[in-house]
Design goal:
This protein is mainly α and about 350 residues long. The chain has one domain. The chain has 14 helices and four strands. The strands form two sheets. A two-stranded antiparallel sheet has the order 1-2. A two-stranded antiparallel sheet has the order 3-4. β3 and β4 form a beta hairpin. The chain is elongated, with a radius of gyration of 26 Å. The chain starts with a helix and ends in a 7-residue tail after the last helix.
Length: about 350
């Protein structure tokens, strides 16, 4: 009976699952094109303009991300990434607010209707009238997550490979109409004064450095998928518990979205406002760190000065959520359908 329920749930979810997977893959393809445009055309332009004024790329970046721009920098990865490197730019596609929104909508929306949705529609009594225990009902939804989450991760991965094939190799585009300004130097020899003119020539970056910056390694995105899976499982497990407590799907959905939005805002604002920084470890999104895994920067996050592995926390939240949902659903009374 469990297998039949799992098949029924997957059949009901096949269209939303395919739509979400297509959205995730398409976004990675689009972000790859944006990355090629930024690194191939815009970055050389602004770097050259900065050199003419005696500035470095870091000076321009600090100016752009000063003040309110710190919020944007926090959203895309903060100081962990280098905006002139292809892999760093592509890794933003995993933490972009739109991608996190899509992941949250899927995990929260599916789990919110798992129990409360069946009660709200009046179909829970029909399901439990079959030879199916409440424990097996929760287990069936856990199996559905075990199928759906890898599917969404695979869609992201295919988007990365497709994007790499679409833009590689990234070519730097020089602007032929961009003329170097002239520098004027004063020279005095005794009573004589001379003015010397010459074009400002910015320093050339070694070819090996350019090749290293623009290299794309699609296989390096694989560790980041574990973080994506952890976020989806954590959100799904937590929402499943809320669903086991509720009766109306949209009330559970609204509450779960509100909590998720507050955690996201606390995590982002805590990066630029020290007064809220202590709250970040209490949010799920603080432990969602695929960029560090993709860029080889480690799997741990600091929690009040102590390095804590991020992945176990995400999967622990999802596991505890499912256990609480199972326990609550086992003990609660089902309301009579209206």
């Amino acid at each position: 009976m469990t297998a039949a329920l799992v098949w029924k749930l997957l059949r009901d979810l096949r269209r939303p699952l395919l739509i979400v997977a297509a959205l995730l893959m398409t976004f990675q393809l689009l972000w790859a094109k944006i990355t090629a445009r930024v690194l191939g055309e815009l970055a050389p332009f602004f770097t050259r303009m900065a050199a003419f004024g005696g500035f470095t790329r870091q000076d321009i970046e600090n100016e752009v991300f000063s003040g309110p721009g710190q919020l944007i920098k926090g959203v895309i990865g903060g100081d962990r990434i280098r905006l002139d490197h292809a892999m760093d730019m592509l890794s933003i596609g995993y933490v972009h607010p739109l991608v996190q929104l899509i992941l949250c909508i899927w995990a929260i929306g599916r789990a919110a209707g798992a129990i409360a949705g069946e009660i709200d529609r009046g179909t829970m009594e029909l399901l439990l009238s079959q030879p199916l225990s409440r424990s097996r009902f929760v287990l069936a939804h856990l199996i559905v997550d075990a199928v759906a989450i890898p599917t969404l991760c695979l869609a992201l991965w295919l988007g990365n490979f497709g994007g790499a094939a679409l833009i590689a190799p990234i070519q730097l585009v020089e602007r032929p109409d961009m003329k170097a300004p002239e520098a004027i130097a004063a020279l005095e020899i005794g009573p004589l004064k001379f003015s010397l003119k010459g074009a400002i020539v910015p320093p050339e970056e070694p070819a090996e450095h350019i090749a290293e910056r623009l290299t794309i390694r699609p296989w390096d995105f694989t560790p980041g998928l574990l973080s994506v899976a952890g976020l989806l499982f954590a959100l799904s497990g937590a929402t499943m518990w809320l669903s086991s407590l509720g009766r109306y799907r949209f009330r559970v959905l609204g509450l779960a979205i509100l909590i998720g939005l507050l955690m996201f805002l606390v995590n982002v604002l805590g990066q630029m406002w020290d007064a809220m920084a202590f709250l970040r470890p209490w949010t799920i999104f603080y432990y969602y760190n695929p960029q560090s895994a993709i860029l080889g920067q480690g799997w741990t996050v600091p929690v009040y000065g102590v390095p804590v592995p991020a992945l176990p926390v995400l999967f622990a939240v999802g596991t505890v959520g499912y256990l609480l949902a199972w326990r609550t659903f086992e003990q609660r009374d089902l309301p009579a359908p209206l």
